[in-house]
Amino acid sequence: MGRQQKEDQVIARIWHGTTPLGKADAYTKLLNEKAIPDYQGTPGNLAVHILRRDIGDKSHFLTLTFWESLEAVKAFAGEPVEKAKYYPEDKDFLLEFEPTVAHWDVTGSTRK
Fold this sequence. Notes:
Blueprint: E1 11-20, H1 24-40, E2 45-55, E3 58-67, H2 70-77, E4 102-105
Antiparallel strand pairs: 1-3, 1-4, 2-3
């Protein structure tokens, strides 16, 4: 990411993937049963959100995760930290493998 993280700065990690519409429900199940526990099992993970949007014959997925530090992200994803992490099962669902993810500084949020 090329910058110093501020103390108490939360990091958002965003990944995008696309499946055929007909495989989207099964991929949703895989994400909920495998990816979410993997994220949550990493120390420093604060939250996981999986978003889905169906457009035509494709389903787009965004994985939005929140981390307490870049070191926590590295513990999950390895280095380089911008490299996307994939599971072996992804080859059965994804139309392409985007090579990188985006990291954003969280500058405001609400919690209930």
